[in-house]
Write a structure and sequence with these properties.
Helix content is 41%, strand content 21%. It is α/β, with parallel strands linked by helices. Bound molecules: guanosine-5'-monophosphate (5GP).
């Protein structure tokens, strides 16, 4: 059997606090065929974050220059900072047949969906608004008014769920959520647009 595979662009998105980052990390651990696309970000690194690994950290001026140079697949302002997916992180890898994972906010995901790129989009849904609020509060990183803002955003984001290819309800353990995502990925790898094994005589 001669196997040639086309790379998959997997977009994981959802409201802040839905758990998309955890699901993305579990998928990367389990499936070595995926590469994480390191985004550009204008926020400061958190303790333990490494430039070029977690994000390409940069100032607003550099980010604006990259926007002007059309260097991004998508970009958005999220919670007061700019984030963007660099074409240089995505395009070459896909052409080389590698799978690329984007963990991005819903504005960015909508841009990728609207762009007509051949992407697989997954919306991560929290079990309830009450649970989402509790997760945001437990994190303790946001002030009460910021939690309220994210809750309002979440309601609007959930309304656009229908524009994604798949939804993963993250209502169990992280491993259960990761298993659902894994199922989607396995099926998408066998799509004939990406995978056409050729039979030998
Ligand atoms: P954090 O600053 O907590 O790492 O990420 C904040 C939010 O920005 C998360 O929802 C994350 O998914 C999103 N994000 C990270 N990188 C990108 C990106 O390249 N584009 C967009 N649109 N959102 C991103």
């Amino acid at each position: 059997m001669i196997e040639t595979r086309k790379g998959m662009l997997l977009v994981i998105s959802g409201p802040s606090g839905a758990g998309k980052g955890t699901l993305a990390a579990l998928l990367l651990e389990r499936d070595r065929s995926f590469r994480f696309s390191v985004s550009a970000a204008t926020r400061a690194p958190r303790p333990g974050e490494i430039d070029g690994v977690h994000y390409h950290f940069m100032d607003e001026e550099t980010f604006a220059r990259l926007v002007a140079e059309d260097a991004f697949v998508e970009h958005a302002q999220v919670h007061g900072h700019h984030y963007g997916t660099l074409k240089s992180e995505v395009c070459r890898q896909l052409e080389a047949g590698e799978n690329v994972l984007l963990d991005i906010d819903t504005q960015g995901a909508q841009q990728v969906i609207a762009s007509g790129m051949e992407a697989v989009s997954v919306f991560v849904l929290p079990p309830s608004f009450r649970e989402l609020r509790s997760r945001l509060e437990k994190r303790g990183t946001e002030k009460p008014e910021e939690v309220e803002r994210r809750m309002r955003n979440a309601r609007a984001e959930v309304e656009r769920m229908g524009s994604y290819d798949y939804v993963v309800v993250n209502d169990g353990t992280p491993e259960e959520g990761a298993e659902r995502l894994w199922t989607i990925v396995q099926a998408e790898k066998m799509r004939t647009t990406r995978y056409q094994p050729r039979l030998e005589d």
